[in-house]
Amino acid sequence: MVLSDRATFDLAVRLRGAGGAPLGDVFSFMSGLYFRGKLAYARAFARPPDPESAISAGGVFVITPNAGLRTPDTPVTVAGIRSFAAVDVSVENPRYRKPLELSARTLAADIGRDSDVILLGSIASPKYVDVLLDIFGERLLFPAEFVGRGDMSRGGLMLRCVSAGEELRYIPIAGARRNGQRPPKLEPLRKATSSVRG
Question: 20, 145, 122: which is closest to 77 by C-alpha?
C-alpha cells in the first residue's frame, strides 16, 4: 500500500519523493503495533552516553535488512524499501550480517565499555542475538518481561510502559532463558487522561 504509485497519503508521497521519508515512520506503518511500540519505548527511555556524538545521538537504532543499524530519522525511498525486501534476514546471509556487524562495532566503539545496549527486537530468534551478542557481550540486555510474549504483546506492553512512564526491567541476554510460558493477556488500554513526561 505505502509503495503503490497510486497512494496519495502523506507518507507514501514522501517515500516516492527524492528526499524519502523517515525510516521509523515507514517501518511503523508497515509493521503496525509491534514496531510502533518499540520505537515509542526506545525514544521515551533511551539514554545515550554522549548525546553530542554523531553516532549515538538519540540512542535509538533500527536494524535494517541490508544497511545495518540506522537511526529512525534516516531518510529512505521506495527503492530503499524494495532493496530491504530483497534481502533474507538470516545470520547465514552476509548481505544482512556484514552491515549489521560493521555498524554494531562502530556503535560499540562510540559508546564505550560502560554503556549497556537494550535489544527490543525478537530475543528468541538468532537473527539479531547471534550477531549482536558477539559484539556487545554482557552489555547486551533485553526486557525480562519479553519472555513468552509474541510480537503484538511486546508492542502493546511497550506502549503501556510509555503511557505510564515506567521502564521495564533489563537482564543480560547471555545465558538467559529467552523462551517461556506465555504470560497473561494485557489489560485493555484505557484512554490517557494526562500527558506523559518526556
Answer: 20
pTM of the model: 0.85
**Residue 50 and residue 57: Cα distance in Å, rounded?**
7
Report d(CA 13, CA 22) in Å as an integer.
Answer: 12
φ, ψ of residue 97 in degrees (nearest 5)? -70, -45
d(CA 157, CA 144): 12
Give the three-state DSSP class for 34. helix
DSSP 120-150: -S-SSSHHHHHHHHHHHGGGEEEEGGGTT--
Q: Residue 63 pairs with which residues in a beta bridge?
A: 69
Rounded CA-CA distance 88/90 in Å is 6
Say yes or no to pLDDT of 178 above 80.
Answer: no
Pick from 113, 143, 132, 129: which is nearest to 49 by CA?
Answer: 113
Between CA 50 and CA 58 the distance in angstroms is 9
